[in-house]
Amino acid sequence: MTLQWAAVATFLYAEIGLILIFCLPFIPPQRWQKIFSFSVWGKIATFWNKAFLTIIVLLIVLFLDAVREVRKYSSTHTIEKSSTSKPSAYEHTQMKLFRSQRNLYISGFSLFFWLVLRRLVTLITQLAKELSNKGVLKSHAESTNKAAKKFMEENEKLKQILKNYGKEDEHIWEAENKKLIEDQEKLRIELRKASDALSKAQNDVMTMKIQSERLSEEYDQLLREHSQLQPSSHSHLDAPTPVVLPYLQPK
Questions:
Q1: Which of 11, 34, 61, 243 has the fewest CB atoms within 10 Å distance of its CB?
Q2: What are the sequence ranges of the domains in the chain?
């Protein structure tokens, strides 16, 4: 394996490790949000988009080069021409084909996991923000509910006081009671708005959770496909290698 493909393979293993760490269930999104909010990320944020696009371009170029190599060595004309010229040329062509296919898988999965990693980080950040907003809305709704209950209790007390006083002061207490009723209605409207906002935040959190679960299922399916592809690669490696002359052995 050349230096560039060794670097791509290392990059692929690092991507798989990061995705596995992000999918750990015992680390909440709020903890990842705190990690992402470090000052060091703010310093490199200006270079992040450029680095992301640069890595995508490099992986696409390597992927296209691997596709070209696969098409080159899998051509029937090339295999027949190599097999008729020298006995060991066919095995050499098959080895080149296997390497090009391996490079194709490495570059393709690296490109795909790089896009998945960026999307996963975005979803975790959005989920953490929604959970924090949910907590703020919930506390606001609880405080509004307590205030409404307090005003209702005061209103009931005032009603009891009105019954004990004479008719000459009844209109004064009625005005105050009307004002309290208006305040109570305003608090009910605020409470209804806070409840609507809380339900909306809960729906957003459920949507983010469903998207995360779908992304985890796609990642598990890719891992299964990758594990199914590995036995075929090992079968090529375990096949008996014919005896070739030293000057014809691949470097």
A1: 243
A2: 3-236
